[in-house]
# Entry
Amino acid sequence: MRVLVTGAAGFIGFHVARALLERGDAVRGFDVVNDYYDPSLKEARLAELERIAAKTGADYRFHRADLADRAAVEAVFEADSFDRVIHLAAQAGVRYSLENPLAYVQSNILGFTHILEACRHAKVAHLTFASTSSVYGANTTMPFSEGHGVDHPLQFYAATKRANELMAHSYAHLYRLPCTGLRFFTVYGPWGRPDMAPMLFARAISEGRPIKLFNHGRHSRDFTYVGDITEGVIRTSDQPAAPAPDWDPAHPDPATSSAPFRIYNIGNNEPVELGDFVAAIEEAMGKEAVKEFLPLQPGDVPDTYADSSRLAESIDYRPATPLRTGMQHFIDWYRNFYGLETGGT
# Structure
């Protein structure tokens, strides 16, 4: 198949594009490669995709452009016809949305509108897009289920991702564009983002600096290994959303529809306390962390826990990588990528 992957220079987008190339699909990457975090890491991911394409002989091209640029998005769809679109590009970061909300409007709202319009006019067979566990917001009913209400987001980032879900449903209803949204739960692993906890903690531990544990370390997260996320994304993309035959408008299920629309959680189904997460990093690095305990930050959700049973029923797959296994893979990559085999920084 020919697949467009937006956010191909990003953490999850890179892994998805690589897996598609390795299975022989034709892949078109799209990314603006902004400086929200170190662009050199994004460039290294793109170089790795080029290397894999050259090695396998896969059909691969990369478009460096902004989703907010409608003409640039339209040009990509005019140059190729796509069997699938996997939309993983977004302005990321919960805390940054408190500082610069307009960046989220440009990328997550305007950019997503351009993708929806392009998919509609190109009659794309399936659009799979990234949502987030953050949409559950103030909900404290665990585990989080797609049947729960998600109308009380705690950050503007989450509000824009919830908006994406609603926008996609409207296009599925009006234009019969099959759309599937995936709510990711705390993804970690090789090639991860430097602004997220695994990279922040690993660097601080390697340099002997304290790691900051907010909410006094009493968070729990459904940490999900990126390899599991990648397989879930691709399996979902391979199975276009269809109308739910038993959908009842008098008692509507928010994760399905009479339109070709689905929402799924994709998490490890096993929340881990932050202290245990740090212990896994310490074990993989062979070095103990210096810990600084701090209060809960504005916009933070204390706990996340995914019920991923709907995804398992739909695609016969659920994440299964144990935390310590996934963390060892991450630390091995981290040491190699940053040249820390001998303890340097």
